[in-house]
Design a protein that fits this description.
The chain has three helices and eleven strands; from the N terminus they run βββαββββββββαα. It has about 150 residues and is an alpha+beta fold.
C-alpha cells in the first residue's frame, strides 16, 4: 500500500486522482464533481493498492474516511466510497503551465502506468473537461496530430 498526496473521487465504480500543489483546487474540484453525482473516496491523501487482478485501487486513510475540507469552513462529513479502481490522474496546474496540445502521458503508480492529464482545477469547465477526457479515454477518441503528419 502506498499513500499519496491526492484527492480521489469516483463515478460509476471508477476513480480518478486529483493531484497538485496546495491551493491548486483539488478539494474545490472534488466538491464540484460531487455536486454532479460523483462520490468522495479520499480528500488530500489517498491510499493505493495494486491487487492481484493487476488493477490499482484507491481508498481513504482511516483517519480521513468521509471527510472533505471546505477551506474557510472546516472539515465536513460526507458519504464516501472505498476500494475503487483508478482509471486516470488529473494533475492540477496553473493555467500558464499547461500545454495546449500535449502528448499522451502516464504516471507509474505501484508499477502500473496510469493515464495522466493536466488541467487547471479552478476552471469553471474543469468537471466537463474531466467527463469528456474520460469518455475519450474509454472510447479511444483522442486525435493524434503526429499521425496526421506522417
Amino acid at each position: 500500500m502506498n499513500r499519496i498526496h491526492a484527492t480521489c473521487v469516483a463515478f460509476e465504480g471508477q476513480a480518478i486522482l486529483l493531484q497538485g500543489a496546495s491551493e491548486s483546487g483539488k478539494s474545490d474540484l472534488a466538491l464540484r464533481l460531487m455536486d454532479q453525482g460523483w462520490h468522495l473516496v479520499a480528500d488530500d491523501y489517498t491510499e493505493l493498492t495494486l491487487e492481484e487482478d493487476g488493477q490499482l485501487y484507491a481508498s481513504p486513510p482511516d483517519t480521513l474516511k468521509g471527510l472533505i475540507e471546505i477551506r474557510g469552513i472546516g472539515l465536513i462529513r460526507v458519504p464516501y466510497k472505498t476500494h475503487v479502481p483508478v482509471i486516470a490522474i488529473f494533475d492540477l496546474q496553473d493555467l500558464n503551465k499547461i500545454e495546449r496540445l500535449p502528448k499522451p502521458a502516464h504516471l507509474s503508480l505501484e508499477g502500473l502506468r496510469v493515464p495522466l492529464y493536466t488541467l487547471h482545477g479552478l476552471d469553471a469547465s474543469a468537471p466537463a473537461k474531466i467527463r469528456l477526457t474520460l469518455k475519450a479515454q474509454a472510447e479511444h477518441l483522442f486525435y493524434n496530430l503526429e499521425a496526421e503528419d506522417a
